[in-house]
């Protein structure tokens, strides 16, 4: 009987995203407050026939087809790279696998869809090597270290919940979960926005400030959370895509406590106090041709599913 393992991992939203000056290596240090959302990618891993290599299948029933088609199914997909990296870590040949990804997180929306897949793959393959080879499972911190070499958002997708991300966002400090459920409306643009271009515009705008002590934040309600939400990249993203400012304003006029470009965009994330109002606004926007999803948070990190 073939080994079948299922795992899932959350989307993320940046509640606070502070950006420092570009470094000699070409990267900007960040200071971010991440929240995991209950918009979870699901990955099913099945042992393949010997010599069959890695096959990747992608499907989904809540996203426009373009988001499904945009996911690579070859060695450029992060799940493929995870398989190679974890096998190499254990001194093993990359296993033959069939991988099925049930996609719920939009592509290129700044919500860590690819990183979520990679985190789910790390957890699933960790279990696979334990079952198939009797290899002791790596701890989350060890998986995060492997994941960080492949993508800066992968460690947070492993931890989930509420956490601070520093350096490139891959150094994670877990925080106690929020005491309340948050309700989110996520507006996904039909146009892309180049992350390097947004950072380049950020450099041009020269709006640097000192990093905040995010671990000292005291958040007891959605209104308090809204008052802390901030994104250093928002002015740069809006200057490149002015319609983002219009959408942000519209969402707040429709009842959002706070609407903000998430990360480098082009997703606009809006926090609502009421689940009902959040759903109502999403329905309204979709009727106007604006692709909108709803979700809640916090959500746990990558985990095995039954």
Fold and architecture overview:
- There is one protein chain.
- Strands 1, 2, 3, 4, 5, 6, 8 and 12 form an 8-stranded mixed β-sheet that branches. A 4-stranded antiparallel β-sheet has the order 9-10-7-11, sandwiched between helices.
- Helix 2 (78-89) packs parallel to helix 3 and helix 6 crosses helix 8.
- It has 2 domains: 4-175, Ribosomal Protein S5, domain 2; 182-297, Alpha-Beta Plaits (2-Layer Sandwich), CATH 3.30.70.
- The mean pLDDT is 95.
- It has helices at residues 65-69, 78-89, 113-133, 140-148, 154-159, 195-205, 222-228, 234-240, 243-253, 275-287; strands spanning 4-19, 30-47, 54-59, 97-102, 162-167, 171-175, 182-187, 230-231, 258-261, 268-272, 292-297, 303-305.
- With 306 residues, it is of the alpha+beta class.
- A hairpin with a 3-residue loop joins strand 5 (162-167) and strand 6.
- It is built from 10 helices and 12 strands.
- Helix content is 33%, strand content 27%.
Task: Give keywords.
Alpha-Beta Plaits, Ribosomal Protein S5, domain 2, single chain, alpha+beta, 8-stranded mixed β-sheet, 2 domains, 4-stranded antiparallel β-sheet, 33% helix, 306 residues
């Amino acid at each position: 009987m073939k080994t079948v393992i299922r795992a899932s991992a959350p989307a993320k939203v940046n509640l606070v995203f502070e950006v420092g000056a570009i470094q000699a290596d070409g990267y900007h240090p960040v200071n971010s407050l991440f929240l995991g959302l209950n918009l979870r990618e699901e990955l099913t891993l099945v042992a393949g026939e010997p010599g069959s290599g890695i096959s990747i299948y992608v499907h989904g029933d809540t996203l426009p087809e373009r988001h499904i088609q945009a996911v690579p199914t070859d060695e450029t997909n992060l799940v493929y790279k995870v398989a190679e990296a974890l096998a190499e870590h254990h001194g093993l040949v990359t296993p033959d696998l069939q991988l099925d990804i049930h996609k719920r997180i939009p592509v290129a929306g700044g919500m860590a869809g690819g990183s979520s897949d990679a985190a789910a793959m790390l957890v699933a393959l960790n279990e696979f090597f334990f079952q198939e080879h009797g290899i002791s499972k790596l701890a989350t911190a060890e998986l995060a270290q492997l994941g960080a070499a492949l993508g800066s958002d992968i460690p947070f997708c492993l931890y989930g919940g509420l956490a601070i991300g520093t350096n490139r966002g891959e150094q994670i400090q877990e925080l106690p979960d929020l005491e309340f459920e948050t309700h989110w409306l996520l507006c996904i643009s039909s146009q892309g926005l180049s992350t390097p271009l947004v950072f380049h515009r950020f450099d041009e705008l020269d709006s640097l400030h000192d990093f905040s002590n995010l671990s000292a934040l005291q958040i007891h309600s959605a209104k308090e959370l809204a008052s802390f939400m901030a994104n250093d990249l928002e002015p740069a993203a809006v200057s490149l895509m002015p319609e983002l400012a219009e959408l942000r304003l519209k969402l707040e006029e429709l009842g959002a406590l706070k609407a903000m470009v998430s990360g480098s965009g082009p997703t606009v994330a809006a926090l609502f106090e009421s689940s009902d109002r959040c759903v109502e606004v999403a329905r309204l926007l979709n009727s106007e041709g604006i692709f909108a999803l709803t979700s809640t948070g916090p959500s746990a990190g990558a985990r095995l599913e039954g």
